[in-house]
Amino acid sequence: MTASTTTTAATEPLYWSPAQKIALRFFLVFFLLYILFNPNGVLPYTDLVANLYIQPFHEFIPWIAKHVLHLPKPITVFTNGSGDTTYDYLIVLFITTVSFVAAIIWSVIDRKARNYNKLFYWVCVIVRYYMGITMLCYGFVKIIKLQFPGPSPGRLLQPLGTTSPMGLAWTYMGYSTGFNYFTGLAEVTCGLFLFFRKTTTLGAVLGLVVAGNIMAINYCFDVPVKLLSTFLVSMSVFLLAKDALRLINFFFLNKTAPPSNITPHRFKARWKNITLCTVKYIIIAYTLLTTVYGDVQAAKQYGDKAKKPPLYGIYDVQSYVVNKDTIAPLTTDTTRWRKLVIGYPGYAQVKLMNDSSKSYNFKPDTAKHTIVIFSDADTLKKNYFTYTQPKKDELLLKGTWGKDSLKINFKKFDMNSFRLISRGFHWVNEYPYNR
């Protein structure tokens, strides 16, 4: 007779320890408040609704900073491209304080509660969906290559030592389309796994790795999204908490790990369960369609494959004539142009002979062959030029710069001559190519 063993799924505990109950109370309030203050903006009208209740905190948090915390500087900057403003950190402090107080009050009021199995299940559902939607957003902007653009002409000319840590990270990520696909697919896969009960643990493990990598980049390269990435990691850990013993047994102790209890908490009314399931798939489909569609549309405007602005490229000055006087290319000259760099639509960079650079608004009219150049510091002081292209790789500008007349002859630089652009991929390397 052959012996057989039966592995049964773990059952939900009938009694929770005081520490488990307090932790659930704290994290329920903590995560819900964080999600309310940081909606991912995918579902319709969430940003519009969020603005209504977040706006009063733009008054309340600065008041707390001034009168309670006595910070030396007033809070005038709120959440923007940076998710790590002083305001954002104070919001996290506010959320933590409220969650701590709520957990204490709840513990006093609900002392006789035996467990929170059903409540824990629904908190996990909310965390799963928030994290899943966020991961899909993270993933698709990499797959469609919007978050990390390829190196621009200006970036290619920028000395390595002058880049910021974030700029270095963006160039590192933006250089490789394949690496964007790899990281993006990992994030999308994580997001999809988190939408379903049976793959939640796998999604949370993958989320811990993926979000951990995002967090490491943000911390190590000073990217101002440290708070969000940290919360994604903490959410992954929270989702894994239920299966902590099973995972430890499997990965570290070489012991049997029984199946997890993934029985859903259903409503008694059948129509409620059907409605809930329908809403679930509507959310998944809506998130996928709107995220992909929005990213594809955005890629046409500013992605790597978007149409390049007129005169795009790097131009080396061949001759520089001011008021009919040809100016010699002396490296000590702080006014003579050395290069004209046209990268982002509407902007250009002028590199001077002493290697300093200045950025300008750059408005070409391809029909009239005219260009208007002016700085943000003085938008009323405009410089007007006409341009011609005697040959494909030549550019001739004639116009005025302040009170002087300018005539500049340029030769277009072949960007494929940059080693970073031309090196490409090689299966076989007889020797390391590290330059």
UniProtKB/TrEMBL annotation:
The chain crosses the membrane at residues 22-37, 89-108, 120-141, 172-195, 202-221, 227-253, 274-294. It comes from the Bacteria. Keywords: Membrane, Transmembrane, Transmembrane helix. This is DoxX family protein. It comes from Mucilaginibacter pineti.
